[in-house]
Write a structure and sequence with these properties.
With 187 residues, the protein is of the alpha+beta class. The protein has helices spanning 64-85, 144-157, 181-186; strands at 9-10, 16-21, 27-33, 36-42, 46-51, 54-59, 88-95, 100-104, 107-111, 118-120, 127-130, 136-141, 167-170. It has 2 domains: 9-85, Alpha-Beta Complex (Outer Surface Protein A, domain 3), CATH 3.90.930.12; 88-173, Outer Surface Protein A, domain 3 (Alpha-Beta Complex), CATH 3.90.930.12. The strands form 4 sheets. Strands 11-12-7-13 form a 4-stranded antiparallel β-sheet, with helices on one face. Strands 1-6-5 form a 3-stranded antiparallel β-sheet.
Length: 187
């Protein structure tokens, strides 16, 4: 039995859960809460039931694919539950002289050492915030995957480099620094 998959998911207050069957035989879970609504479809090897204010995820058989889907499905539903109640947040930090970010409407404009500005339009349901120094970006939303994908996309525009540490990094990320050429010659 999956260690993650066997744990029931508690349905929190102010959260509505609907489970329906898809034409392909799978199930669709729709969760509505204070921070919005999320919906996801799951394969027919996994059975999702609602009992006593809990969601229980079980599998139909012990095939290898079904076992791998069991814990994944439970984790995805748990993340949906957290997303509609608390939401998810990622923070990025811009390091470099003259590097900065601005919001123009809902569009993020990055000036990070290229000959042109880089514009990033966030998907629907994602909110961007920038602090006064224009070097800290906060991405918030109710879908964990979308928030993480946007943060990774923005970071990939100018990854932090190991010599001076310039670039865009996650706020809790540690960049391993390398010694430059001149340090190598002196040794």
């Amino acid at each position: 039995m999956s260690r993650v998959g066997k744990h029931p998911i508690q349905i929190l207050d102010k959260v509505e859960v609907q489970i329906s069957t898809t034409p392909a035989g799978g199930q669709t879970v729709k969760i509505k809460g204070p921070k919005g609504e999320l919906q996801s479809s799951f394969r027919n090897e996994i059975v999702i039931t609602k009992e006593n204010n809990q969601l229980i995820v079980t599998r139909k058989d012990d095939e290898k694919l079904t076992k791998s889907l069991h814990g994944t499905t439970r984790a995805m539903i748990q993340n949906m539950m957290i997303g509609v109640t608390d939401g998810f947040k990622k923070q990025l930090t811009i390091i470099g002289v003259g590097y900065r970010a601005q919001l123009q409407g809902n569009k993020l404009v990055l000036q990070i050492g290229y000959s042109h500005q880089v514009e990033v339009v966030p998907p629907e349901g994602i909110k961007l915030e920038i602090d006064k120094t224009q070097t800290n970006i906060t991405i918030t939303g109710n879908n964990k995957q979308t928030v993480g994908d946007l943060a990774a996309y923005i970071r990939a525009v100018r990854k932090p480099e190991p010599y001076k540490g310039k670039g865009i990094k996650y706020s809790d990320e540690v960049i391993r620094r390398k010694a430059g050429k001149s340090a190598a010659k002196k040794a």
